[in-house]
């Protein structure tokens, strides 16, 4: 799925926040992510709930906060939609790898 299909499927025309689908793919693929190792149990975040939501959403690590990490570290290098598009590509790959 390309970026336009990703947005269109969700009825989104202009992106103001990252269009997370709550699939859990990122939370099920944390092996090798240094910032998340204390949450890692067999590659899956220990705070991932059965409905693919986060048990510590309000206090989750910065790496899990797409919009905040964009503002803090990447806004000087990327336009917001370009940053989202790169993250969507990664999301799609993670989803494909899990299926």
Written account of the structure:
This protein is mainly α and 99 residues long. The chain has three helices and two strands. Strand 1 (40-41) and strand 2 form a beta hairpin. It is globular, with a radius of gyration of 14 Å.
Summarize the structure.
The chain has 99 residues and is mainly alpha-helical. The protein is built from three helices and two strands; from the N terminus they run αββαα. Helix content is 35%, strand content 4%.
SSE order and pairing:
Layout: H1 3-9, E1 40-41, E2 44-45, H2 66-74, H3 80-98
Antiparallel strand pairs: 1-2
Say how many strands there are: 2
Major sheet: size, sense and barrel closure? 2 strands, antiparallel
Question: What is the average of the pLDDT values?
Answer: 87
User: Oligomeric form of this entry?
Assistant: single chain
The helix content, as a percent range, equals: 25-40%
Q: What is the general shape?
A: globular
Strand content: under 5%
State the end-to-end CA separation. 14 Å
Output the helix-strand order.
HEEHH
Short key terms for the protein model shown above:
two-stranded antiparallel ribbon, 99 residues, 2 strands
